[in-house]
Amino acid sequence: MTIKSMLLILLTSSAMMTASKVYSQDTMQNATQHIETIVLGSGCFWGAEKRYEALDGVIDAVSGYADGEGFKATDKNITRQSRRFDDNNYAEVVKVTYNSNEITTESLLKHYFENHDPTQLNRQGNDVGTQYRSTILTSNEQQQQTAIELKQTYQVKLTAAGYGTIVTKIKPLKKFYAAENYHQDYLKKNPNGYCPDHSTGVVFDSTNKPNVDNSALLTNKQIVVIDAKGYCPYCEKFKKEVANNYQGTIPMTFRYADELDGLTIKTPTWATPTLLFIENGEEVYGRQGYVSKDEFYKALGAFKLGDSEAFRVAFHARTDSPYCKQYDIFKNTPEGVFIDKLSGAPLFDTRDRFNSGTGWLSFTQAVKGSVTMHEDNSYGMQRIELKSKSSGIHLGHLFPGEGPQGKDRYCINATVLEFVPAE
């Protein structure tokens, strides 16, 4: 044997040993960390992907297609009208990678069943077609057995709640195809929509379901926001940009879709968030999906103020009549704060109020950071418009140097304010 041949054998053996060692390390690492994957279909994959990613123990969630054959798995192909009821169509699914030491297969699949309606055949809500079918595609026998047992358990609970037969298909995964890039993290890329919530409200552990008292919602005007049980970026955005800063006198209450007992609701409740304006327990107006701060306050203005001078002042930059009724009420109040009639945010302090003799409420300054200033050239005049920073409603105008001792005069419409006396 030549030296060249001996070196070739030694190098080949060394490479094989190294590869075997690396493979063994990777296998052992995955086994030690209990990394598993399972593919789940429960309708449109956008909301499902985000809900899985938010679970502790889930490492990754990828939207994709599976369980079809006969053509290339692409969004364009599976959504063709001709394949709407094709049994060979691919399903919209999410491939979930998780650490079963942190979240068990049982816990993950309970979340799966509870977060859609597994009794709907080839649909979830308004999404209709075989691509929206309920399916569990497993990677091992333990997942398969767990899925079958949970399906049987959940069927008993659904039947007791008046639902039909679970149509979820459970089978081993053959092939998963990742969806197009624009489908991945779709809700992050499209921040002004909603998360579909087709859950039945039936849960595996009923002891975790609180008893909700809606008696306070049956009288007067109320704002009810339908929240998501799982993670919903649109709900979180609404809370951050609107709800968390709301201090208005009409109460805002968050409820899940299955917590509306006693209320008369017309708007479908499968989208989160859904905004409901209710009076004496009956819906007056509903809006599905995320609403911006401006949209929220305009809707609230219509609900609270109706067809009134206050609404026209707030949203059409009108002006109160001088010496109007509200001015007469507010011109001599005890010490306190005038607040935004819609948001409840403090705007003006009575200690800065003075009698300008104009017939409109006048102040030397606003509460710090409470108003914004805008150029106003209407009616052939050059003025500085004042708006509430919290709600965006029109308040009045600023006239520099027209106050006492050369101070500014904040000329404000009384109809868009409410008064809170000092404690």
Automatic annotation (TrEMBL):
Location of the active site: 44
Signal peptide range in chain numbering: 1-24
Keyword Lipid metabolism tagged: no
Keywords from the named record: Multifunctional enzyme, Oxidoreductase, Signal
Pfam families given in the database record: PMSR, SelR, Thioredoxin_2
Reactions catalysed, as given in the entry: L-methionyl-[protein] + [thioredoxin]-disulfide + H2O = L-methionyl-(S)-S-oxide-[protein] + [thioredoxin]-dithiol; L-methionyl-[protein] + [thioredoxin]-disulfide + H2O = L-methionyl-(R)-S-oxide-[protein] + [thioredoxin]-dithiol; [thioredoxin]-disulfide + L-methionine + H2O = L-methionine (S)-S-oxide + [thioredoxin]-dithiol
InterPro entries xref list: Met_Sox_Rdtase_MsrA_dom, Met_Sox_Rdtase_MsrA_sf, Met_Sox_Rdtase_MsrB_dom, MsrA_MetSO_reductase, Mss4-like_sf, Thioredoxin-like_fold, Thioredoxin-like_sf
EC number of this enzyme: 1.8.4.11
Occurrences of domain MsrB (ranges): 299-422
Family as reported in the entry's similarity comment: Belongs to the MsrA Met sulfoxide reductase family.
Task performed by this protein: Has an important function as a repair enzyme for proteins that have been inactivated by oxidation. Catalyzes the reversible oxidation-reduction of methionine sulfoxide in proteins to methionine.
Name used for this protein in its record: Peptide methionine sulfoxide reductase MsrA
